[in-house]
Amino acid sequence: MRFEKYVYNPHTLQFEKVQLTNKSIILRILGFISAVVVSSILLYSLTSEYFPSPREKSLLKEINQLEYQFSTLQSKIERADKVVQNLQNRDAKVHRVLLGMDPIDPSIWKSGIGGHDPNAPNKFFSSGGTTLSETKGHLDQLEKQVYFLSKSMDEIEKETKTKEKMLASIPSIKPVRLDHLSKSVQQLSGFGIRLHPVHKINKMHSGIDFTAPIGTAIQATGDGTIEKIENKASGYGKSVLINHGFGYKSLYAHMHIIKVRVGEKIKKGEPIGTIGNSGLSTGPHCHYEVWFHGKPINPIHYCMDGLSPKEYQELVHQAAISNQSFD
């Protein structure tokens, strides 16, 4: 069927046939096709937007779920970051300060990831203004901080065990139990220049004399190892030397019975022997010395157990009086 078009001519008062060129026909056909294509695209867009297919509905649901999960993940990362920062502050301002450790350089906590960008393929995906790349970068840094924090906790735990061992080892109790001593501490010879009971001259008394009946138990004043045992007719008589480590040693002299042997490990408060009157001594007592890095120090500062502040001050006062020693 041919396409023919007629137009009315008012001059001749007749319908006259319009002759169309091939170019006009082609243009009209292309225009029609274009209109059909545009209409189809618009129709498809409208139907896709307002009438999605079952598969599209499923994909949209998955996208919404992923966006919700991504938002939840961001919230969890932010909360975890706050927890890590709190732990880092406690690590630097509490734990390391109490243990006398240097704090970790803050720049280490803020260090990032060097080299190429491992999140480059995801850098254009975003949710709520935060790109997936930024979130992964934050998570990587958080993971790194947790690693450093874990290493720091290992160091603190190791240092704590060392401090715990040191506190258990440093002499900190009296060599004779409190219930076996007179709290009035009237008969006590302390550290310093004292009148020798036999030679009757002033000599350096390097320890404290604790009086108690013969056979009264003598206890180790700190954890350590029995380093030396002596049994002399004069001087300190029967004596025990304990090496506590950390530069500390303690000496117990004029003993009656020795219950330990060289090389034996001993714990604070365990018995090592009994009070006696061996060696150059004028009465039953325990001559007790504390050494730090090879030099004798005043043991009175390491005998605070079981005493009230008032009783301890009385002990310090009596130990400071220049009286006659028992050895």
Written overview of the protein:
The strands form five sheets. Strands 5, 8, 10, 11, 12, 14, 16 and 17 form an eight-stranded antiparallel β-sheet that branches. A three-stranded antiparallel β-sheet has the order 9-15-13, with no helix packed on it. Strands 1-2 form a two-stranded antiparallel sheet. The chain contains five helices and 17 strands. The chain has 327 residues and is an alpha+beta fold. A hairpin with a 2-residue loop joins strand 11 and strand 12. About 4% of the residues have low confidence.
Tags for this model:
about 325 residues, alpha+beta, eight-stranded antiparallel beta sheet, three-stranded antiparallel beta sheet
Summed up, the domain count is: 3
**Shape call:** rod-shaped
What portion of the residues fall into strands of 2 or more residues? Answer: 15-25%
Low-pLDDT parts are: 112-125
- Strand tally: 17
Assigned CATH superfamily of the largest domain:
Glucose Permease (Domain IIA)
Major sheet size, sense and barrel closure: 8 strands, antiparallel
Order of helices and strands: EEHHHEEHEEEEEEEEEEEEEH
What is the mean predicted local confidence, pLDDT? 78
Structural class by helix and strand composition:
alpha+beta
Radius of gyration: 47 Å
What would CATH call the class of the largest domain? Mainly Beta
- Might you state the CATH topology name of the largest domain? Glucose Permease (Domain IIA)
Discrete helix count: 5
Question: How many angstroms does the end-to-end distance come to?
Answer: 143 Å
